[in-house]
Amino acid sequence: MREIVLGNTGIKVKQNGFGALPIQRANKEIAKKILRKAYDGGIKFFDTARAYSDSEEKLGLSLADVRKNIYIATKTLAKTPEDFWEHLNKSLELLKTDYIDIYQFHGANQMFMPGDGTGMYECMLEAKEKGLIKHIGITTHKIQVAFDAVESGLYETLQFPFSYLASETEIKLVKLCKEKNVGFIAMKGLAGGLINNSRAAMAYMTQYDNVLPIWGIQKESELDEWLEFMDNTPIMDAEMIAYIAREQKELSGEFCRGCGYCLPCPVGIKINQCARISLMIRRAPSAYWLSEEMQKEMSKIDDCINCRKCVSKCPYSLNTPDLLRKNLDDYRKVVSGEISVAYTE
After folding, report:
1. Is residue 82 exposed (0-12), middle (13-18) or buried (19+ Cβ within 10 Å)?
2. Are 287 and 345 in contact (CB under 8 A)?
3. What is the pLDDT of residues 193-225, one digit of tens each?
4. For the stretch 7-30, what's the b/e string if a residue is b when 16 or more beta carbons lie within 10 angstroms of its beta carbon?
5. For the chain, what are the domain ranges?
6. Which CATH number fits domain 3-246: 3.40.50.1010, 3.30.70.240, 3.20.20.100, 1.10.472.10?
7. What is each CA distance from 344 to 69, 282, 291, 298, 340, in whole angstroms?
8. pTM for the structure as a whole
């Protein structure tokens, strides 16, 4: 079993972290069962956010009695000092704790720093001085913001998407974090659902001894996979390397990661679902993708006014309107039966 040390924070945990975004979709009883099983199975790092509806509350209700044995990372979307303190105090209340191990600026579009006029980094420093937080972190989907944060020396951890679909630039970012002794927390290790082989996803992560993946877990069956890998960790043998190479080739080029930074759309298109539907109906089969509800959502693409606001906001510089139209064309062929795709209930 591998252990990961998160940079200079000194936080040392077993190789899998718990991403608590999905448990907002589980009821409190199921969420508690999953969280306690994760803890009993050796997972000691839990990542949540003020923006994840009742995720923090469920963590607090489930793990408050073992608080000293775990690490909690949460996040704030605050852009003003007033909101910062409101978010932090609410997180502490819901998590039933008097401190947070890693407090992160959530989905940052800029790198807050001392003296930038926002007062936001100063809030982090004050919270740390008061003992309300232990370490300062940042999460982002924007690669330049990520590089700037790591180079600045101001942040102890970086949370960024990372999977076996990572580009050379993203791999360079991981290596820079190791060089600068900044903890790297990997979100979207399954690329937002596009990766459907958990063994391959885990094996890939083992190549980077400074990366702590946080797997989004909603069901007990999902948790069981990651707990199995704690002791029986998949390795990057020749077969796995060949498999991942085929995956990378199939998913090369432009594709939507589903981050949602492009939203809201002026005409109500759910871009983060609709712009990748072609991949999802093939790689994450579900009756929902072909449901009447989803067909109505896809039809909104016809109303696109080509304002290109989504393009300007996309962290990956995608030509989103073009991607939407290509997905709609493919989708309609699937719905009509012109293209056959298997799906499950």
Report:
1. exposed
2. yes
3. 889 999 999 999 999 999 999 999 999 999 999
4. bebebebbbbbbbbbbbbebeeee
5. 3-246, 271-336
6. 3.20.20.100
7. 40, 11, 12, 20, 13
8. 0.90
